[in-house]
Amino acid sequence: MDFEEIKKPDQNQFTVKSNIKNYDDSYEKSSWDEIYSELDWLPGGGLNKAYECIDRHVKNGLGEKIAILWEGKNGEEEIYTFKQLKDLTDKFANVLNSLGVKLGDRIFVFMDRLPECYIAVFGGLKIGAVVGPLFSAFGPDPVKDRMEDAGAKLLVTQPELRRKISNMLGDLNDLQNIIVVNKDNRDNNPLIEQDLSYEELMEKSSSDFSIANTSQYDYSIMHYTSGTTGKPKGAVHRHQAIVQQYATGKWALDFHHDDIYWCTADPGWVTGTSYGMFAPWSNGITQVIYEGGFSASKWYSIIEKYKVSVWYTAPTAIRMLMKSGEKPVKQHDLSTLRFIGSVGEPLNPEAVIWGNKNFEQPIHDNWWQTETGAIMCANYASMNVRPGSMGKPIPGIELAILDKDFNPLPPNKSGLLAVKPGWPSQFHAYWNNSERYNSRFKKSWYITGDEALMDEDGYFWFQGRSDDVINTAGHLVSPFEVESALIEHPAVAEAGVIGIPDKIAMEVVKAFVALNVGYEWDEKLKREIMRFAREKLSAGVAPRDIGYVDSLPKTRSGKIMRRLLKARELGLPEGDTSTLEDD
Ligand code: PRX
Q1: Chain centroid to CA 55: how far?
Q2: Cα of 378 to ligand 1 centre, how many Å?
Q3: Distance of CA 216 to the CA centre of its chain
Q4: Does the C-beta of 452 come closer than 6 Å to ligand 1?
Q5: Which domains does the chain have, with CATH numbers?
């Protein structure tokens, strides 16, 4: 089906410097140099994300501006100004200092969307630590893999999450301290063994702190992301990434100083840090943080209550809103919404059109990934939106479509989506894995792992992934990580994991297992293996369904042919099976 371009009204009434008013002009008018000069930099010449996001606003007279409008899952409300955030993050930096955390040490934050999660991340950045946020729904296996790989020295968490992973914490040889946040005394028995109480440490700590003189090249944050093979890799970003996070907040999300912004992503994933922390706060924007989960009417009431003007969310959430119908939309006053953005999965054209009808504006899709650190390609506020397209590259970013030999293809040809390296928010390592890092660069291009095409007007259109990584509800899942968990079950001899299409979550995880001798496949065993995987991984990552096979299709070198499993499951052509091992 063809969808017509959605023509936008002239948006040139906005006067914020550097907001993109006209796409073609932006290439001449905006440059990274200009953006670098808009940042404050540290007095000693360095660059620190926490300083750009918090301290500089206090220095520039915005201390009383609201940084966080927090609503807890039980309806609690808290407000934090930039000045309060400065004091609290200074205090937490002093706590870390007193525990011996040094520049470059890795600290992990495993928390729900509590204000203290944000305080911990920014306190860590202030001391020059490399902060690793973790998705709070994770079970013990993903947490262990990530913290072990990174050699984490300290963990900040909360009582019930701490208990969930207790059994594996003793295996982490580098871990020296666990700080437990007992928000509002929600837990009666928050501390185990040597754990430290966040509240007690903060009570004793001074807010007199001198921020570490990090350079723009020092590491700031690491996010583990799923790859084609092996366990997830720790993509590491520098403080310099703030340059592009700041710029794209203005350009791609159209931030204005008086905006109330809501990013629905969890800080355990990159959208929740790059656009739930760095982009809004480097722009001095007030943001809503809602601890609770999804419900259509609750989400609309958050927009209404806090007068949200810029909303950044994800296709799965939009599809869930569509499913809940138009009635709840009409029951709320959403007239404050000025700009809606979406990322993480393909945004189907129907969703853009549904948004246009129900929110009186199209939803603006944009594209980026953990490794890019910030938005690379976007539908701007000023652009006519082509439903189904990810928009155009942001100024200063060169995207290309390459053939399998990594040579550029002309418009309207599908191929590998690639980026010219050197963008400010580029990742600079996979932790301890330079081989994998280097393998992402070919013939002077960074290869994204996605397939796309560019039309003759320069709009990019997502076509799919070129690897086996599963995108479920906007979260990338490594089949290998799920297979590793499954084969730890005594009944499972081998496992192959694929993504199968789903109307809401785009894909859901499905596993196929072969059993060890002595086990019989039945419904009870299937349910037990599914529960086992959920406890180890998390509900979102564990298989939604498991099928039984006598043996998995493998190449002669022993690699599971997931592509073939998928083709068989979906009744698609099996393609080239010449490397298939004989049964
Ligand atoms: O496959 C693309 C998909 O999500 C991947 C990046 O996921 P992650 O590293 O977890 O980062 C999430 C935050 C952006 C991409 O390689 N993806 C992202 N945005 C889009 C998308 N697929 C289609 N359309 C998008 N707009």
Answers
A1: 25
A2: 12
A3: 22
A4: no
A5: 13-451 (3.40.50.12780), 470-570 (3.30.300.30)
